[in-house]
Structures are given as structure tokens and as C-alpha cells.
Amino acid sequence: MSDQARSAGESAPRQRRELLYSGRVQGVGFRYTTRQIAERYQVEGYVQNLSDGSVRLVAEGETSELDRFLSAVGLELERFIANIQTRISQATGGFEQFSIRR
After folding, report:
1. Rounded distance, CA 42 to CA 27, Å?
2. Does residue 31 have an active-site annotation?
3. N or C: at which end does the chain have fewer Cβ atoms within 10 angstroms?
4. Which of the four pLDDT bands, split at 50, 70 and 90, describes residue 42?
5. Given its phi and psi angles, is residue 53 left (phi above 0), alpha (psi -120 to 50 degrees) or beta?
């Protein structure tokens, strides 16, 4: 879709992706690095440590932008990740930025 079509009121499809990362993903700067990467992309959501030692990442944005963002996260942090579970759904529009949740 061209930029002109988007400016005429049409927008690219938006998705919500919920990922659960396991491995050595806490205590290694995973959340901080993920937030820094998110600043380079048009995505909103959060990253959060869970009590079981895993990390949850929830992101919304245009499908292609999410693909690029999550690819960058994977490339930067792959040495810490043992497994990734992914769930895809419709975007809710409930986020204004990308943040770290405690």
C-alpha cells in the first residue's frame, strides 16, 4: 500500500503479538534491551519479567513492523533464549508507547 493510500484514511493491518521467552532471560538486561530496540520501530506494548523466570513481551503495530521489531529482538538476544511461545491476535489499541513493566 502506498503512503498516499494510507494518508487517505486506509491503514495497514495491525496485530497484537504476545511472546513468552524462556531460557536465561532474566538478569541479563533483556527488558532494557528490548525497550531500546522498540524505540527504533513503530510498536507499542510492554516487556515484563514473570515469577517463573520467563519474560513476557506484548507488542502491537503493523504486521510488517512487528516482524522487523521481533526479528531484531531475536537477533540481539538469541544467546539468552531457549524457547519462544507466540500468540497472535487483533490489536487492541490499548498502548501509547513501549514500556517495561515491573
Report:
1. 26
2. yes
3. C
4. very high
5. left
